[in-house]
Each structure stands twice: as structure tokens, then as C-alpha cells.
Amino acid sequence: MTNITKPNEVKREWIVLDAEGEIFGRLLTKAATLLRGKHKPCYTPNVDCGDNVIIVNASKATFTGNNKAEDKLYHRHSGYFGSVKSEKFGELLANKPEKLYKLAMRGMLPKTKLGKQMIKKFYVYAGSEHPHTAQTGK
User: Fold this and answer.
1) What confidence tens digit (pLDDT) does each residue in 58-86 have?
2) Residue 120: inside a domain, yes or no?
3) What are the beta bridge partners of residue 16?
4) DSSP class of residue 60?
5) Are 103 and 87 in contact (CB under 8 A)?
6) CA-to-CA distance for 136 and 45, rounded, in angstroms?
7) Does residue 134 lie within any of the structural domains?
8) CB 119 within 8 A of CB 105
9) What Rg, from alpha-carbon coordinates, does the chain have?
10) Number of structural domains in the chain
């Protein structure tokens, strides 16, 4: 008989990933697996059984592609006519690397209430310091 994990039975850990020297996409797929809980034997698709993930040194990750900083655009739209706003990848990386990571992670998680719960356990910091030292057991 298969055991179904209940939300109150999930044991969450705090996992710190260092982005320095890592490829952006590969790092985020690792983080998405940890957030969903697919690395655990008790994985259940309809229960949020993932861990809390912290990414430090977000601004020091490496990116593939020659002209990605100039060519790739991120769009947002308020719903009103003519209100499409665009930001270049390079500007987003220089000014708000946390937002860049959150946007990419949001695309890798389910587009449901469960995905919204999962993204709340994802923390990104541009530098090497983070305020979650009490949770990591250090």
C-alpha cells in the first residue's frame, strides 16, 4: 500500500546554495527540485513537501549565451492599453538579481496555489550574507 504524505507530516530543512561560478539555469533546476520535494522519498504531487531554499551570491552566477544581456527582455503588463513595460536582462541582473531569480523560478513551479506556497520558501540574496542563520543550524 502506498503512503500518502499529509501536510502536517512534512519535515522541512533549510538548504543554502551558493551561486558563485554556477550556471544560472542549472542552479535553478536544482533549487526547483528541492522546493517541490522531489528529492524526498515521501514526495506527493498534491502536497507541498519541499524544503526552504536560500541562494546566496546571486549576482555572481554565470550565464550562457553571447548577447543575452542585450537581447533578452522581460515584459510586464498592467492590463491597460499601451502599458507594456520591458526590462533588459542585463539591467535586471545589475539592479535586481533577486527579481530575476524569482521570475525564473516561478516559471519552473506549478501554476497553482501549491506553486504560490512553494515560491514563498525561496529566498535569494545578491551577497554572501543572509539573515536565516538561526534556521540553518549554524
Assistant:
1) 989 998 888 888 899 999 999 999 999 99
2) yes
3) 54
4) G
5) no
6) 26
7) no
8) yes
9) 17
10) 1
Q: Is residue 31 part of a domain?
A: yes
List the domain range (segments joined by +) for residue 60: 13-65+95-128
The owner of cell 507594456 is 84
Q: How far is CA 72 from CA 11, 63, 83, 129, in A?
A: 39, 12, 19, 29
Could you say which DSSP state residue 80 is in? S
Helix, strand, coil percentages for the chain (3-state, nearest 5): 40, 20, 45
- Measured between its terminal Cα atoms, the distance across the chain in Å is 39
The Cα–Cα gap between 8 and 44 comes to: 13
pLDDT tens, residue by residue, 113-137: 999 999 999 999 988 888 887 665 5
Q: Give the contacts of 114 (CB within 8 A, at least 6 positions apart).
A: 46, 48
CATH of the domain at 36: 3.90.1180.10
Cell numbers found for residue 37: 520535494
Task: Say if CB 42 and CB 50 are below 8 A apart.
Answer: no
* pTM of the complete model: 0.87
Give the separation between CA 8 and CA 122, rounded to whole angstroms: 20
